[in-house]
Amino acid sequence: MENKGLVSVIVPCYNMGKVLFRLIDSILEQTYKKIELITIDDGSTDNTREVILSYDRLLKNAGISLKYVYQENQGLGGAVNTGLKYFTGEYLCWPDADDFLAKDSIKIRKEFLDSHPDYNLVRSDAYLFDEHNLESPKGYITGKKRNRFRECGLFEDYILEKDIIFCPGCHMVRSSAFLNVNPQREIYPAKRGQNYQMLLPLLYECKFAFIDLPLYNYVIYKNSMSRGDDTFEKCIIRCDGIKEILFETLNRISMPIEKRREYYQMVQDKYLHIKCDLAFHYNLKNEFYLYFFLLKRRGVINMTEVLKRYIINIPILIKPVYFMKKAIRNVGY
């Protein structure tokens, strides 16, 4: 049973001992204190446990409850999945362990949901910081995103990652709405992709809002997880992993069969485009021909898009014009 007014904060942690203090400090500094902090230590081999437990007394004195859970490493998705078994708050958020909150972050979002019972999810803007300069933000996470003020109809945009706010710490959800679409408190325990699984079922069902304030601080790290995908093979593995998660998420959403098939194909086409782009970027001609041919056969690429994606914005390649002419000729344009 949800605890009225309580905000649950699930934080997945893996070897975050050097940076986790910033997030916990920012939770201590919140102007709204009725918080339960649920930390999931995902098999850390550094001092993550010691850092978390060192805050126990400070958090308790501030009226913030702390729950520390250790598990063998399962990845971000697996850690969030574990955290879902423990939250009891009226509202729920799940920031990344290496970012931090603005002082009014929880208060403003919680009060919005309090006063707007017809909304079940609220998003905010965020500052972008470089890891080496946490004093001066580089900009805003929304940038020029035109969709940020929309209150519905973003389900497909989130699937396609089209002009959206995907940062987990920018979101707060009403727990009752989350449990309505996910009564088992369970997401697919993958290494990544937890945000698709947390957000898509809500975006399909619920009305959501945007607060035009930077209530979160997103830190850009040189050695982040996604930046480690530095070869074609690693990128393809990442694509296939996220595609599997999207399929699994779509399977768990109640919708007409034909609509689900339509979304399956949307996901397939999305990752064919990405793989084609990757093959082009890495100058892998055979792979490029294959993905290009599959896109053409599906009828989801045309000459206008070819010009836009592969010629106007052409990367540095060996004989790029010859490469493109041959690719286009080989698939029948």
UniProtKB/TrEMBL annotation:
InterPro entries in the cross-refs: Glyco_trans_2-like (IPR001173), Nucleotide-diphossugar_trans (IPR029044)
Keyword annotations of the record: Transferase
GO MF, any single term: hexosyltransferase activity
Ranges that cross the membrane: none
One Pfam family this sequence matches: Glycos_transf_2
Residue ranges of domain Glycosyltransferase 2-like in the record: 8-178
Superkingdom to which the source organism belongs: Bacteria
Keyword set includes Transferase: yes
Statement: the UniProt record of this protein carries the keyword Transferase: yes
Name this polypeptide is given: Glycosyltransferase family 2 protein
Species of the source: Bacteroides intestinalis
